[in-house]
Amino acid sequence: MPKVDASNALNFLPENWLTGREADLTEAHAMLQEGRGPGSDFLGWVHLPENYDKEEYARIKAAAAKIRSDSQALVVIGIGGSYLGARAVIELLGSPNYNLCKKDGPEIYFVGNGLSTDAMLEVMEQLKGKDWSINVISKSGTTTEPAVAFRIFKAMLEEKYGKEGAKGRIYATTDAHKGALKGLADAEGYEEFVVPDDVGGRYSVLTAVGLLPIAAAGIDIDALMAGAHEAMETLAKPGMDNPAWQYAAARNGLYDGGKKIELLACYEPSFRFFAEWWKQLYGESEGKEGKGIFPASVEFTADLHSMGQYIQEGERHLFETVVRFAECNGQIIIPNDPDNVDGLNFLSGKPLSFVAEKAFQGVVLAHVDGGVPNLSVTVPKRTANAVGQLIYFFEYSCGLSGHLLKVNPFNQPGVEAYKKNMFALLGKPGYEDRKAELEARLNG
Ligand code: PA5
């Protein structure tokens, strides 16, 4: 299980930061476990590592095997919760340079997560001369960015393989009953996977939304799910030694004390998109009703040479949560240089990880001295099992934390507001009144 260490935040927290929240944590925990409270329609993720659809899970594996056998590239179309989880896991367990690394599976390209023409052209260029498939993912089936991207890449695929050939290369992950994508997938006969009704986008990485691209990348989804299952069982036990209780209580205690921004830090470049996933999870779950910790992220040690100045001496509204992987995947020994021109022979024979460990320790002490409390979450190693645990740990902590903050952690009315404005401004039928109102404002 991820281990939470709040010892470097204690000077910034009241003595009863954990015990003083016992009653609220007990209630928040019960709401999650018993399926009640604000947002209770969206608690399918709580028992998902046990209650997932086994028949669909087998189809996910079969589809991934087919993609791996007939495609040199997979285009994954989705945005927000229909995108970040898959990319987070593929990069964390694979590489931030996944497509450049030598591997036996397809290259993975993520599109439909923005509206950049240049980015899309770049992916189109990469697909030239390759066999490829599409996994289009949208719970609502109507989000503009992925819908537009799907129209474009579907046309490309049909041009390459013909309409019939393309059908066998398109995998649609969407709502079980409704939405434009569901209608299209039914009509065209694509293989379909389901985003369960009771699982919101940002909690959906362990459904087909995340699992199909992750499995296509050759990652062991059994181990990922087993890790999540272990975490589900461990975190279901209420009490002060529950790491999710500790993390939720500490961050809320720091927030109450004026620390409004949480910097999620990691020393692994492969963690970058996991941090993006985490930002969506916490930002969408808690940022509402004029409340919520602002989730941000940094990559150490690189960002110590850019954001480090602000963290050390800027406005004191920050705290840090460092995710640490205790063990590396191998070892690099710093060589001896007989001339010692760079003066580094005091490090000769030491592993690079030793330098990283000392950097971590030095950074924590410096930042704490500078007024930035530090929490750490330690995970044994970058394995599929450990990452499954980490995913569930952050999800569960987020549910608890949102309840401590007294918001509904499972809705996202703010995201819907922008989507509606965009539909209106683009002239989508049914949005005529809103279009007129918005255009009057824009035209001053
Ligand atoms: O968490 C959310 O609900 C959002 O970020 C959605 O995942 C995102 O807007 C994409 O929505 P959809 O899957 O309906 O296309």
TrEMBL record:
Superkingdom of the organism of origin: Bacteria
MF annotations from Gene Ontology: glucose-6-phosphate isomerase activity
Catalytic activity: alpha-D-glucose 6-phosphate = beta-D-fructose 6-phosphate
UniProt entry keywords in alphabetical sequence: Cytoplasm, Gluconeogenesis, Glycolysis, Isomerase
Catalytic site: E284, K419
Coiled coil: none
UniProt pathway: Carbohydrate degradation; glycolysis; D-glyceraldehyde 3-phosphate and glycerone phosphate from D-glucose: step 2/4; Carbohydrate biosynthesis; gluconeogenesis
Short name of one Pfam family: PGI
EC number: 5.3.1.9
Keyword Cell membrane carried by entry: no
Compartments where found: Cytoplasm
Family annotation (HAMAP family): G6P_isomerase
Family statement drawn from the similarity comment of this UniProt entry: Belongs to the GPI family.
Function, as annotated: Catalyzes the reversible isomerization of glucose-6-phosphate to fructose-6-phosphate.
Name under which the protein is recorded: Glucose-6-phosphate isomerase
Species of origin: Pseudoflavonifractor intestinihominis
Lineage: Bacteria, Bacillati, Bacillota, Clostridia, Eubacteriales
Name of the coding gene: pgi
